[in-house]
Amino acid sequence: MALIKTQHVIESVADALQYISYYHPEDYIRALATAYTREASPAAKDAIAQILTNSRMCAEGKRPLCQDTGIVVVFVKVGMQARFEGDMTLESMINAGVRQAYLHPENTLRASIVNDPAGARKNTRDNTPAIVHVEMVAGDQVEIQVAAKGGGSENKSKLAMLNPNESIVDWVLDVVPKMGAGWCPPGMLGIGIGGSAEKAMLLAKQSLMASIDIHELQARGPSNRLEELRLEIFDKVNRLGIGAQGLGGLTTVLDVKILDYPTHAASLPVAIIPNCAATRHVHFTLDGSGPAVLVPPSPDVYPDVNWAPSPQAIRVDLDTVTREDTRRWKTGDTLLLTGKLLTGRDAAHKRIQTMLAKGEPLPVDFNNKFIYYVGPVDAVGDEAVGPAGPTTATRMDSYTEMMLNTGLLGSIGKAERGEEALKVIARHQSVYLMAVGGAAYLVSKAIKQARVLAFEDLGMEAIYEFTVENMPVTVAVSADGDAAHQSGPAHWQRQIALMPV
To answer: Who's near 314: CB < 8 A, 6+ residues apart?
Structure first.
């Protein structure tokens, strides 16, 4: 009978969360490197290059792959013969590990968890509590899978209660384009089939813990119905042409994972959960001998990809740029931004809305400025700011008219804008710029100074002023309303259709 010490659980969970914050799984790096090699879309290839370069930088610098260091999800299999030391609950041990990991002084992770979710939404400040799933199994060991799931990808999760005669493939092909690019492709799709509504969702999440092996499956061929489904969905989703960051390209998903469970004769529950470019999960086993030992990926696994700005990139001085300048930018143009840049996301926009409704003066002048939708990681050492990649812009769509009425020139985020927001942007002759989701540490190197201007109590959602130097972005929506996230995938879907199956 193994005795599992409390401190071993806490240390192992803390070490695992630090580990996955800066190390991609080796299988993901290899799969993304393969996708980079075969990618024909210049915009998608550039985005993948940024993600791969960021991955290596994070492994070397031990800083987060993404500014959204996720909600912690833990799957635990407890052997029936295992015994835990002391009276501390397993969930309490795991949360102690989360707290220790996220407050680590040498690699502080972003606290994103809020309690009272339907009310005050106050940040817990240490990213607790985790979501913990426990299963009792045979044996005397404790197996733990730790994942950190970003909000952008988690928000795209879908559940359907299909009729038994409906097509799962057709449903997936209907859902994936509607998910947009906020989940930061290329990543993985986790699919759960059967059980009940909540079981299907759990299966989808669990499936994402497995290694990427779709190319091996393609080589040997399917041996059961689920493997047939994996191959069919993988091929058909990639033929949609959505591509890296939703800009259009050959690779949208690197793998499709499926788990199933028996279900009611009248039911066909199907759930889909995407995993983003910041794929973060690790598995370890505790047998009473000590805390988990996690081996870093081999340096050799990283491809020789070193992203650098295009020589054709347009250099923009944010302190002097005018609306006349921005009107000349075309969709797909690469820009390098230098100067003062404001930040703000969900909570800041909501507070601005409340202040304007009350007739109160705003604490920040947005006239002739750009706003970056970001919630950065706290700085460590001599950093101006920690990893600071973009958040999903569509969440700010309902505030777009309000913000552009302040004289704002444009916004910067990730993923597409909704139809109404596109109309508002065109009417104001504003622009929307896109930074690469999944390249947060790389982006942060362009930020030379950072200071809070307003709403300091909101933590990472406060309004900052960044001083940036050659920050790379792409024009995703031009002043006339042309949208790269519409034209890019449409073009590449046509191109892929001409390629042999």
So the answer is: 329, 333, 334, 335, 336
What does the domain layout of the chain look like in residue ranges?
Answer: 1-148, 151-277, 314-488
Q: What is the Cα 152 distance to its own chain's centre?
A: 5
Q: Name the average pLDDT for the chain.
A: 97
- Topology of 151-277 in CATH? 60s Ribosomal Protein L30; Chain: A; (3.30.1330)
For residue 454, give the H/E element and its range: strand 447-454
Instruction: Tell me the torsion sign for CA atoms 159, 165, 167, 171.
Output: negative
CA distance 491 to 332: 13
pTM of the model: 0.95
Q: What's the pLDDT tens digit per position in 299-343?
A: 999 999 999 999 999 999 999 999 999 999 999 999 999 999 999
334-343 and 463-477 beta bridge pairing: antiparallel
Take residue 302 and report the two structure tokens written for it.
Answer: 């990283």
Helix (H) or strand (E) holding 26: helix 26-38
Could you tell me the end-to-end alpha-carbon distance of the chain, in angstroms, rounded to an integer?
55
Name residue, tokens 């909501």: 350
User: Does residue 500 surpass a pLDDT of 90?
Assistant: no
Alpha helices in 395-497 (DSSP H): 400-404, 419-428, 440-444, 484-497
CATH for 314-488 (3.50.50.60, 3.40.630.30, 1.10.1040.10, 3.20.130.10): 3.20.130.10
Q: What is the pLDDT of residue 501?
A: 72
